[in-house]
Amino acid sequence: MPEEKDACEECSSDSCSAKSMKDGETSEQYRERQEISRRLCRIEHKILVLSGKGGVGKSSVAAGLALALAKRGERVGLLDIDLHGPSIPGLLGIEGAPVSGTDDSIHPVATREGVLVMSMGLLLRTPDDAVMWRGPLKYNMIKQFLGTVEWGDLDYLIVDSPPGTGDEPLSVGQLIPDADGAVIVTTPQAVAVGNVRRSISFARQLNLPVLGVVENMSGYVCPECGVDVDLFGSGGGVDMASDMGVPFLGRVPVDPAMVRAGDAGTLASYLSGDAPGARAFADVVGRLINIVETAGART
Q1: Cα–Cα dist 116/67, whole Å
Q2: CA-CA distances (angstroms) from residue 44 to 115, 158, 213, 217, 248?
Q3: What pLDDT shows up at residue 216?
Q4: Which CATH class is domain 24-298?
Q5: Which of 58, 133, 170, 252 could form a disulfide linkage to 51, CB 3.0–4.6 angstroms apart?
């Protein structure tokens, strides 16, 4: 595709690795890498959301970060690479939304808040369909998402990865070498914190900066009196962040209203107000933006 090669050749960045073929790289591999670079170079900040184990509310945190960023006026994309358990469309109320595109491009689905979303959940015939793929197929799907989704110009792309340190987070970490870093999600319990330490080690092995830790389900907000109760303990996330030498971004409480909103696909409406969860995500995003922009100013 000459026009795509010309776009890379005209790029003003001398450090862009997509301007020349790597040793041992085939022409097909080079073309695919250019496809990915051509789209991602229009995105200022790329952030992965990781967790060491399931059940910590990682997708809810990823969606909350995207919505809180959009609320601040940022142009935001949300890529769900949890191929076996895509939950982003349900949280945002866009299940069944039609996906359009051409032979070589896919257009993301826009929420009413302006967040652009792409997820395997939008491509399944029904929400009950199972994706039964091994590693190579998953890698190719993630590569296709990165190389064909037309995000346009964005301030932030949030990438929701499945739990653990397997194929999907490893693939996206390798395919986005210039990512700003990772946000790690945990809950306060010791069993969750122990697994999350592995996510931090995983990010460091990929030379992926750890932007900070979010302690989710940190306290229960009583719907009657508004008092916080530490159902799962407290402080595990902040202690672990301090011990591992990474920033602590903040706590997000268990708010029954936020749980109901996620189940109903109205998480955006909940976060648009002044509820405890909305305030928590606003605080987390404020710290995250400061860390990202400070790191960018140093490079």
Answers
A1: 10
A2: 15, 11, 21, 30, 23
A3: 93
A4: alpha beta
A5: 58
Helix%, strand%, coil% for the chain, nearest 5: 45, 20, 35
> 3-class DSSP state for residue 106?
strand
How distant, in Å, are the alpha carbons of 85, 173, 259, 268 from that of 134?
14, 18, 32, 33
What mean pLDDT is predicted for residues 85-93? 94
* Stated pTM of the model: 0.89
Pairing of β 210-221 and β 154-160: unpaired
> Structural domain boundaries of the chain?
24-298
Q: Place 50 in a pLDDT band, splitting at 50, 70 and 90.
A: very high
User: Looking at residue 14, what is its pLDDT?
Assistant: 59
Taking phi over 0 as left and psi of -120 to 50 as alpha, with beta for the rest, 148 belongs to alpha
What angle, 0 to 180 degrees and rounded to 10, lies between the N-to-C axes of helices 190-205 and 167-175?
40
pLDDT > 50? residue 3? no
- Please name every residue paired with 220 in a beta bridge, in sequence order, or none if there are none: 229, 254
CA distance 87 to 23: 39
